[in-house]
Amino acid sequence: MLLLPLLGSCGNPFAPEKIEPEGGEAQRPPAQVATTPEIAMDNNERAFNDRDKELYESLLDEDFWFTEPDCLGDLVFVWGREIELEIMGGSRDGSRPGIFEQFRTIDYEIELLRRFTELGRDFPKIDENDIDGHPDEDWEVFRARVRMLLLFEENEGFRVDQIMNFKLREAEDGTWKIARWIDDPLSGACGGGEEEGDDETSKLVGGGLIPSGWSSVKKSVF
């Protein structure tokens, strides 16, 4: 599947249950090896919609970081690869389920807004703890609006509608990995431009769905 301005399709959680063909569930072909940034982004969409924690793990760079800043640019959420994998796929010992296991339904849709190359020469490392510096590599960046429905039950769960930035780097084996996942601060919390309640994230869908930012959803179930 090629990455288009609109990736995937937002499934209808209230549609009649699909009837699988006789002989068991139809098998999808394996996910493509992420030899391009576009395939990596497609695989990220597939990992969410299929709740495939192994595929998701394969997409995260060893130096992956998830962050969300506030409107002043200060980080309010930040964690690395192991915490991200535990949040999404559960603890390694199986004692804590992750998001892929907790929700009965996950519908993930991404609308590409901008694609560009982030040149390494423009991002020198300030110090050894600088997670944004990559002076020796150019990264590919996808800026997109991401919409998710995450349902525990038919009318209970979360809705996310948020601008996000995905920064991908090419690994030594030639595959592309997500090095940085950055959530934009929600517009309703920024104190300018839009009043709180105007952002798409604040609109309820159904009586039991809670509008929320993606980082807040992760923290609420972790």
Entry summary:
With 222 residues, the protein is α+β, with helices and mostly antiparallel strands. 18% of the residues lie in helices and 33% in strands.
Keywords:
single chain; alpha+beta; Nuclear Transport Factor 2, Chain: A; 8-stranded mixed sheet; 5 helices; disordered N terminus
Walk me through the structure:
The chain is built from 5 helices and 8 strands; from the N terminus they run E-H-H-E-E-H-H-E-E-E-E-E-H. The protein has a single domain, classed as Roll (Nuclear Transport Factor 2, Chain: A), CATH 3.10.450. It has helices at residues 37-49, 53-59, 81-89, 99-102, 214-221; strands at 6-7, 60-69, 75-80, 105-118, 139-153, 156-170, 176-183, 209-211. Strands 1, 2, 3, 4, 5, 6, 7 and 8 form an 8-stranded mixed sheet that branches. The chain is globular. It is α+β, with helices and mostly antiparallel strands.
Specify Rg, calculated over alpha carbons: 18 Å
Helix run count: 5
Kindly identify the CATH topology. Answer: Nuclear Transport Factor 2, Chain: A
What is the general shape?
Answer: globular
Number of strands: 8
Total number of distinct structural domains: 1
Approximate helicity band: 10-25%
The average pLDDT score comes to: 81
Low-confidence stretches: 1-24, 192-206
Structural class: alpha+beta
Distance between the termini: 32 Å
Give the ordered list of helices and strands. EHHEEHHEEEEEH
CATH class: Alpha Beta
Beta content comes to 25-35%
How does CATH name the architecture? Roll
Largest sheet: 8 strands, mixed
